[in-house]
Amino acid sequence: MKNNDLSHETPIIVWFRKDLRLDDNHALHAAAQTGRSIIPVYIREPSQYGTGPLGAAQAWWLHHSLKDLEKALGGLGSRLMLRGGEPGSVLAALIAETGASTVHWNRRYDPNGIAVDGPLKETLGVNGITVKSFAGQLLHEPSRLKTGSGTPYRVYTPFWRALEASGEPDQPLEQPDALVSPAEWPGSEDLASWALLPTEPDWARTFSEIWTPGEAAALERLEAFVEDDLSGYKTRRDLPGTDGTSRLSPHLAMGEISPARIWHATRKLKNVPAEDVITFRKELVWRDFSYHLLFHNPQLPSENLNRKYDAFAWAENDDAFKRWTKGQTGYPIVDAGMRQLWRHGTMHNRVRMIAASFLIKDLLIDWRRGETWFRDTLVDADPASNAASWQWVAGSGADASPFFRVFNPVLQGEKFDPDGIYVKTFVPELADLPAKFVHRPFETPESILDAAGVTLGVTYPKPLVDHAKARDRALAAYNKIKDAA
Description:
Layout: E1 12-16, H1 26-33, E2 38-44, H2 56-75, E3 81-84, H3 87-98, E4 102-106, H4 111-126, E5 130-134, H5 156-165, H6 215-229, H7 233-236, H8 249-253, H9 259-265, H10 274-296, H11 318-325, H12 332-344, H13 349-362, H14 367-377, H15 383-394, H16 409-416, H17 421-426, H18 446-452, H19 467-484
Helix pairs in contact: 5-10, 10-15, 12-13, 13-15, 14-15
């Protein structure tokens, strides 16, 4: 009897999303193993879906990352197809044009991605299309780890211990040596027509001072970090004036490198203290924990996980919020962070916490406004980490920092940027102040301000609030909801 099933000869569509890499790409690897022709595609989904870049800064990154992926695929004898539209319609059109009978993708774990992928997989299946989805975007599947009582984790340390006890992540997969092309390529849209890059003004022109998007740069950065910067990481990661962090977060956010590849690179290192490796791995696992929280609490970016904070009396102060976004608060460590964000699309992690605490507790502005601002301005914007971290600072999230723990921006600056290197880099009007005064210009003698060319209220703003009084106000507001709970 003749077998008319030709599915083993038809092309496989590999749908790239936030997994813009060839290395350790499970969906691509499985397709390549079949020996069938492969049609790689990136779909620009409608913005209201919330599945693409989270903001304008990440759109800049996406443009360059797609160009890098296109080049890398070319090196394997393949191409990257670009299509815009609702993914079900785009895939249906590609299937009709190419005769593809199988679609591969790597799973998404954010609510918006799940809302698209679940129904789409069912629809394609009903229409006779085989859909295979793969893990690999996280170190663990968010539904896998449970507490002893069978519930999701809400505290980080037990989560870390459970993940650590579950064994090493799978060995990362090497990229394919080559990909089989279809007999005829379908049409592709032009990347430039997507207008992902800012033009007038080109506010991202300084991003390239420190960033090179793409998988090749991600792998190079990982190698350099492990060889040169991982030793001493536990201490240096908190010092914004040094190059002490991995700077891998935007590459992770767009999937240009897998967490398993990063984890694997930290194995069996002879010249790196174990405490540095463990500290770095815990930072990597915080991303997994954030997705664990988001997966089990889909409203994490918009609703307080601790519902008593729903009654918190936030201030509606648009002028204060604007000054915070522009780095004009009068507190140098906060202003340096916000200006670094505008200049490079990133902010040192320690300073993120200080700046977030200042917005929430000194200004009493709703954490959701800060979360939204970071989404638009960070190149490493991530739906899980961004939301979980803002709720952590606000005290409203899982395993959160207590609300009554209010960062003092002056003391934080003096502790973590004692020589003022970070502040003077991004707040150049304070460059000539002695280190002793750089974090407290408002307490600096007039003669020293004059010698440094600083005029408060003219060349550098006076403090937006008095921190001590703002702290008292924040604690009073917190005590109202605490007493009512």
